[in-house]
Input
Amino acid sequence: MHEKSRQELVNGLMSKGITDPEVLKAINNVERHKFLPKALEFHAYKDIALPIGCEQTISQPYTVAFMTQELQLKEGQKVLEIGTGSGYQAAILTNMGMKVYTIERQHDIYSLTRKLFDELGLRIYAKYGDGTIGWSEFAPYDGIIVTAASPDVPKSLKSQLAIGGRLVIPVGNKSTQTMKTLLRVDREEYQVKEHSAFTFVPLIGREGWKEK
Ligand code: SAH
Output
């Protein structure tokens, strides 16, 4: 089901500049409609963000593809995601053969998505809590992806990155952010690349925005 619309989505992403064949293959493999509320399934293969409840969203496929491409990970590497949400981004990384750790701060979303991972047979390490402080137990990570808008780059996340690893994160105010890729060159040195503007829901936590 939905194979044709998924292929069309992949073609659309290619025309928007996504080139990594592994990323495109994963978008083609993962059934995005399974990560959405039933009523929205019909829109699953449009290149748009959609609401998943609790004022949160499933990211636009282009955004997922862009950030995944920026991580430049290889099969078998370890990646930490902050902001599990629907679980779609985590499923894409898992489909590419990464070992995925993901953290979600809203308990309802965490429970639902964790159940979905089990139902879909996805082996993903999911945790409920504040992701701005990372998950030190399993650090360092070859990649860290933050799928919520941060006022700054959390220090804890920088410190949990492996040398040679990349941290992809939208940084800015609550209405618009610049996507950044930080490459950890050595212990103290990070190379920063800036991309265009994106819009995410806020990253709330100790090293993010403070709760209202
Ligand atoms: N990656 C998701 C998109 C998530 S939307 C997907 O593929 O669908 C952003 C998510 O980040 C929301 O679910 C929000 O609750 C969560 N979030 C916000 N601040 C957080 C924090 N400090 N730690 C973990 N999750 C956080």
In short: The radius of gyration is 16 Å. Strands lie at 50-53, 56-58, 78-82, 99-104, 125-128, 141-146, 161-172, 177-184, 190-198.
